[in-house]
Write a structure and sequence with these properties.
single chain, 291 residues, alpha+beta, N-terminal domain of MutM-like DNA repair proteins, Helicase, Ruva Protein, domain 3, 2 domains, four-stranded antiparallel beta sheet, 7 helices, 10 strands, DNA-binding
Length: 291
Amino acid sequence: MPELPEVETVRRGLHELIIGRKVAKVSHDNPKSFPNASADVVNFLIGATVTNVRRRAKVLMIDLSTGYTLVIHLKMTGQLVFRGKDAVFGAGHPNDSLIGELPDRSTRVTFEFADGSHLYFNDQRKFGWVKLLPTLEVPNIDFMQKVGPEPLEADFTAEQFAERFKRRAKTSIKAALLDQTVVAGVGNIYADEALWGAKLHPQRLVGSVSQAEFKKLYTELRSVMNLAIEKGGSTDKNYVNAEGKRGSYMDFARVFRREGQACPRCGTTIIKFKAAGRGTHICPHCQRLDV
DNA sequence: CACTTGACCTGTCCGC
DNA sequence: TGCGGACAGGTCAAGT
């Protein structure tokens, strides 16, 4: 599920909602969701106050006053939802949360704060995880060492973007875009959207993409991700923000999940097929393999 | 090394 | 209605 814009939306929500709150209790139902949650480790959490909420690529980091950080990956179906004390949800209740009463059957980890509020880590497919690490060690973990630059950073240039792809000259442009070591945070939705914007066929080999085409792809990727953040991300099924609410980018998508509909640029019918192992959406007129 | 494929899970949808 | 298979926003560990 969540790509850079969704994780950033959750980060912003949590930044507003949980900084300053003190952890009182932690429970988890699935060892894979919180692999190092031994009693000892969980004890490092109790009494700790949240000092910051950060993001790198698709990874969230909740910093604690004790020098530890909760590192969280939502993978496909992870959700982090905050509920205030006495929050009432469910059928008939006037709120626009996509999910009802918590915890529910996909709740994997529950954090209870001293003021009676809760943070729930929900994850239907159990691919996501929470780990507690010393804050100073987070930059040393394998993922952080290998992950590419943040595409939305102000000082990240089109030239740097193009340079990052050189190592993957013989693979498809879509596979390279999805490779987190090339550029951070791109997933299936925004890969398809950016490739449509740049009029690039996803199966074009990286080595065949010109400097001008890379520059266009860079611009399109940044613009689509910025728009997605503005719209609070994409909710197809599972994704919700820190308040349990949906994002609206799908209303603005040009090709993703729009097979059978008209290309907004030329009117040709959008098609779907498999590329780089993923469901892939293109306009067959705008995005040609044989350029 | 670079590259591709299957595995990890649960739930839903589609065709028979 | 039931059942099997394909598929879903992401990584990894294997294999070539």
